[in-house]
Design a protein that fits this description.
The complex is a heterodimer of chains A (366) and B (294). Chain A has 366 residues and is α+β, with helices and mostly antiparallel strands. Chain A is built from eight helices and 21 strands. In chain A, strands 6-7-8-3-9-10 form a six-stranded mixed beta sheet, sandwiched between helices. By secondary structure, chain B is an all-alpha fold. Chain B is built from 13 helices and two strands; from the N terminus they run αββαααααααααααα. A two-stranded antiparallel ribbon of chain B has the order 1-2. Classes of the chains: A alpha+beta (366), B mainly alpha (294).
Chain lengths: 366, 294
């Protein structure tokens, strides 16, 4: 178990900077998930913690020791790779036991520990097989075993589930979670899959374009996204964003075709803002209901437990998630009821969250 | 299951194969058949057909101490030059794969030697290794009589081994580098995370994974060292001094075209062919077992 402190870490490749100064603190025993789209620098950050990538600027400390100049093996981290990176010429047992062999652990003790790890991961009957002869899920387990056997201070996961099929991914997800509960080692898990991130994380770090957008529990990130990027990246289907302008008596949305009466606390008239509302927070009502917005149904996606209804709001795409068993024909008109408490406001320019608005009931356009 | 293209009728398939079959027949089976025929007959001195002599040609060759000396020289040459060329190439490729400074430069430069014709490079090495001028002359100044390929058989053998290896280092290098680069980066990184240092990673991970390439190059290098050495021997030593570098392939040429003993030369080439076949079978049978295919 170990804490990790990241201070002003940057990464440059030749002339391009891919990580622009990241400050993060991971507590001992915490399960942290770094979430972001591909190319956001999340894997690079993980590899800098591991020691596979040089740190261009700033420091990374594990348990209070700055590890910038330490070799990967001196940092006490174990890593599970996206493509598993199993040694193809070694058997499962040799793969799992390789780190102990390198460390010079006597073969009797080594075999004992391999057996123990194999038992935990239900790999006992596969120990003599080569990685080639394993299924994706089994390979994943071997990769986990290889990381576990060293009893590392820190577990690093680089999108380890992205090569598995959907069912296996869900299964491995809960196994990783259980494993963490038992070993209680500090874990850093990188992924672009938000469901994976939400379900696994004690704390979630959302990254974009080489910067940290928000750090918080999955609940905090979902209910109070700190930026427009986080708002639209976390949650499926993505949060609806409607562009608007601050006016004397509230907000004008969608180029003035819709109006929203909200108390304007401190923002000058004419400021451009983005109003966000989650599809699952919108209620469907009969068209023409007081305080509801009228919209035309474009497309209905059946999810079994519910359905996503894509509607057209004066040319702007908008989605509604509902669990009601109501059928809506494409082309028909529906009313959308939005509670002011569910609205999020972001600055149009910087994308940061604005909490200056106190929303009241929206009024339909005339 | 592997997908294969199949032809509806036999004729189309055979028509596609005909050019290749013609080439192989004209340039391999026909000459090889002629060599077998000549090796079993004796040419009349002034023409007028061959006399059937059975295995007499083989008997007289194998009873000749000079021929056994030639076989020994060929084996020594093949063993040392293959080992040297592969070892040097392996080290260079391993270093290049690690992306050390300047690796892009010598990745290109190291490939060139293979493109040089054997006589041209032999000429160059004849000058480079000349005892009377250049670097070796300086060495001779310090230790008089240390180096003289014209007089000392061992020196002559060393000269042709150096020249041949130099050419094949480039060839082997290309294959080794490709093999190293085919190893996924993450395997090396995983080994680094497992606590393995540079040398340990080389022996535990990279070396086992390039064994298919090592095996392939071993077969090619040994075969080529029996056959491709002719130009180098001819220019650098002409088989001398005192037959010290009279390799089998060179002896076939000198006996056949200079000594005009076509039948004897034909018999020798059959023996050389059999030797290479046996060596190759041996390699596939005993060394290939240790190769890890992915």
């Amino acid at each position: 178990m170990a804490s990790i402190a990241i201070r002003g870490v940057k990464k440059n490749y030749a002339k391009t900077q891919v990580v622009h100064g990241v400050d993060l603190d991971f507590a001992s025993g915490e399960f942290v998930v770094i979430l972001g789209p591909s190319g956001c620098g999340k894997s690079t950050l993980l590899r800098m913690i591991a020691g596979l990538e040089e740190i261009s600027d700033g420091t990374i400390a594990i348990d209070g020791t700055v590890v910038n100049k330490l070799e990967p093996r001196e940092r006490g981290c174990a890593m599970v790779f996206q493509n598993y990176a199993l040694y193809p010429h070694m058997s499962v047992a040799q793969n799992i036991g390789y780190s102990l062999k390198v460390a010079g652990v006597p073969s009797a003790e080594r075999n004992q520990r391999i057996q123990a790890v194999a038992r935990t991961l239900e790999l006992e009957h596969l120990l003599d097989r080569k990685p080639m002869a394993l299924s994706g899920g089994q390979r994943q387990r071997v990769a986990m075993g290889r990381a576990m056997i060293r009893e590392p201070k820190v577990f690093l996961f680089d999108e380890p589930l992205s090569n598995l099929d959907a069912k296996l991914r869900v299964q491995m997800r809960s196994e990783i979670r259980k494993l963490h509960r038992r070993l209680n080692a500090t874990s850093v898990f990188v992924t672009h899959d938000q469901v994976e991130a939400m379900t696994l994380a004690d704390r979630l770090v959302v990254m974009n374009g080489g910067r940290v957008e928000q750090v918080g529990t999955p609940g905090e990130i979902y209910t109070r996204p700190a930026s427009r990027f986080v708002a639209t990246f976390v949650g499926a289907p993505a949060m609806n964003i409607l562009e608007g302008t601050v006016e004397l008596d509230g907000l004008s949305l969608l180029g003035g075709s819709r109006r929203l009466a909200v108390a304007r606390a401190g923002l000058p008239v004419g400021t451009k803002v983005a109003m966000g509302i989650r599809p699952e927070a919108v209620r469907l009502v009969a068209p023409g209901t007081a305080g509801a917005l009228n919209a035309t149904v474009d497309l209905v996606e059946e999810l079994g437990a519910g359905r996503v209804i894509y509607v057209d709001l004066d040319g702007a795409p908008f989605s509604v998630m509902t669990s009601e068993a109501v059928h809506h024909e494409p082309g028909s008109t529906v009313g959308l009821k939005i509670s002011p408490d569910d609205m999020h406001f972001f600055s149009s320019e910087t994308g940061t969250r604005l909490d200056v608005f106190k929303a009241s009931v929206p009024e339909p356009a005339l | 299951m592997e997908k294969r293209v199949t032809f509806a009728s036999w004729t189309i398939g055979i028509l596609f194969a005909v050019p290749q079959l013609l080439l192989i027949f004209t340039f391999f089976y026909w000459p090889a058949g002629q060599a077998v025929y000549w090796s079993l007959t004796l040419q009349q001195p002034w023409g007028g057909g061959n006399i059937w002599v059975g295995l007499d040609n083989f008997r007289s060759i194998l009873a000749n101490a000079v021929y056994w000396n030639s076989i020994t020289a060929s084996l020594v040459f093949a063993g040392i030059s293959t080992g040297l060329a592969m070892f040097v190439a392996l080290v260079l490729a391993a270093l290049t794969d690690r992306q050390l400074a300047g690796s892009r430069f010598y990745r290109v430069v190291l490939i060139w030697p293979y493109g040089i014709a054997a006589p041209a490079l032999a000429m160059a090495f004849r000058f480079i290794l000349a005892p009377e001028a250049g670097f070796m002359a300086v060495v001779n100044q310090v230790w008089p009589g240390f180096w003289d390929p014209g007089l000392d058989g061992a020196d002559a053998m060393a000269s042709i081994i150096i020249a041949f290896s130099w050419k094949y280092v480039g060839y082997n290098f290309i294959f080794f580098l490709a093999a190293f680069q085919a190893i996924p980066r993450s395997l090396i990184e995983a080994a680094a995370m497992d606590g393995s240092g540079v040398m340990r990673r080389f022996w535990d991970i990279q070396f086992p994974l390039i064994t298919p390439t090592i095996f392939f190059l071993l077969v090619i290098n040994i075969t080529e060292s029996f056959q491709d050495s002719f130009g180098i021997v001819d220019i650098m030593t002409s088989g001398g001094p005192a037959n010290a570098t009279n390799l089998m392939v060179y002896k076939i040429y000198s006996d056949g075209f200079k000594g005009l003993d076509y039948s004897g030369a034909a018999a020798q080439s059959i023996i050389l062919m059999l030797l290479i076949v046996v060596l190759t079978i041996f390699q596939f049978r005993f060394i290939e077992r240790r190769v890890h295919y992915r």
